[in-house]
Amino acid sequence: MRFFVFNSKGGCGKSLVTREVIAAPFGKKITIAEVDELNKTQLAYKDQFNDVIELNKENIKDLLIHLNEHDNIVVDVGADNLTNTLQVMIDYNLFVDIDKVIIPLARGRTDAENALTTYKAIKPYCNCIMFALTMYDPAENLEGQYQVFFNNVKKVVENFTEKNYVTINASNVFVDAQNAKKLVTELAADIDHKSAALAAKKEGDMEKFHDLMRQELNRRSANILMENCIMPAHDKLIG
Question: E strands within 95-207?
Answer without folding.
Answer: 100-105, 129-136, 165-169
